[in-house]
Amino acid sequence: KLLENFFIMAKNRFLLLFFIFSLSFSTLIISSSSYNPTNINIINPKNNLPNTLLKKGYVSMSIILENTLNNFISSSPNTTNFTIFCPTEKAFLKIFPKYQDPPNRLIQYHIVPLGLNKNVLETFFHRGSKLKTLLLDHSIVVTKLPRSEKVSINNVDIAEWDVYNDGRVIVHGIEEFFDPALETLLFYGHNIGSSSGVEKKTEQKTYRLSCFGGRGLYRRS
């Protein structure tokens, strides 16, 4: 049994390393073919985001963001503030035996083009507030009231606030990956980016969406 568990862990770690390599390589190819000198440069020698994540135990996201973040944010050239929801190492190891979708899309789904520190999120947003992500036409949703014991988004708890905050980029640690295939749409009338600031509570609905060509993030048994 111990030997079997060892091989399972070794396989998961190999898949994780392969994922990080493939993500970095594919993003570098895209970046070289779509270079824009006006792009915002978040990762630079004066910025210690990757090192901070590494020291705090978010090893996989540290490597991924060091190689990909500048390319991801080029899709929002007029935005200067970003919030990244960073899965733990345990979440990375848990997801890869089930992983199907393009890794770039998954990481983009965890980046919001807004500066959302703990105080802002708890003060200005409520259950059902939708936060647009860098993944086109996809939002994450606040699913637990801010004054609960823990704030959750897409039913995933925020485990560690302000892992990193330099005034432009904010990183919060989360216990699991957000699953785009289980995107929760809670209609409370208030939506980020809407012209109306009036809250009009309407019927709450939950939809199970099949994103990315109908496959979803996880295999279903």
UniProtKB/TrEMBL annotation:
Residues 46-182 form the FAS1 domain. It comes from the Eukaryota. Gene3D superfamilies: FAS1 domain. InterPro entries: FAS1_dom_sf, FAS1_domain, Fasciclin-like_AGP. Belongs to the fasciclin-like AGP family. This is FAS1 domain-containing protein. It comes from Solanum stoloniferum.
